Amino acid sequence: MRKKIIAGNWKMNNNKSETKQLISSINNLLxxxxxxxxxxxxxxxxxxxAVGYSSDSFIEVSSQNVHHxxxxxxxxxxxxxxxxxxxxxxxxxGHSERREYFNEDELLLFEKVKTxxxxxxxxxxxxxxxxxxxxxxxxxxxxxSQIKNVxxxxxxxxxxxxxxxxxxxxxxxxxxxxxxxQIQEMHxxxxxxxxxxxxxxxxxxxxxxxxxxxxxxxxxEIFSNKDVDGGLIGGASLNSEDFINIINSI
Length: 250
Ligand code: 13P
Description:
The protein is of the alpha/beta class.
């Protein structure tokens, strides 16, 4: 059975003391469940402290980004090996904000995914259509090519380390969520794509998360879809009670 996953993408929020406070209040409310992973992704400067602050809980810590090269003259960048050396085993790659504001294209994203996996880390890979693509009814094609152009270049053994996160761009930070039918039909489409490429067994064991305005008042409805294995939460992950309510909804 696939484990449930709730991941909080903190984006560019929280300084060191706020990081400590938020982790401690999540910890106070969080109950261990065998089939559940809880992941938080603070910014680079707070990753090492976050690992320390969550050392006596089952919270896992992920980075929000990673550089595509292993080392070298890339001023201001952070490598997978550096992340690993401070206890970070997961990286978010392909978030729409990085695609849009930092011009990350699919060739670069493939390099990032490959380098991260080569370092033995897991990847949360984000993708999703924008509003024009949705209106033009191109969302299935867009998502198919986003997945094929990056993830389907991986070997089976590499693909096993990927957590997929479908995040329709029009639902991110807008308060507008895809409805349960739109979510389930896309997740089922993605699972079929994976089955056609890697076989049914791997497809059935691959986690597919939904992200985009998941809140405590819509989480139950979103998570009740059979191909939704959890959520990638932005705004609502910055408040411990909201985040816990979302965790308790799965
Ligand atoms: P919101 O939950 O704020 O819409 O953000 C979603 C997201 O981008 C998570 O990566």
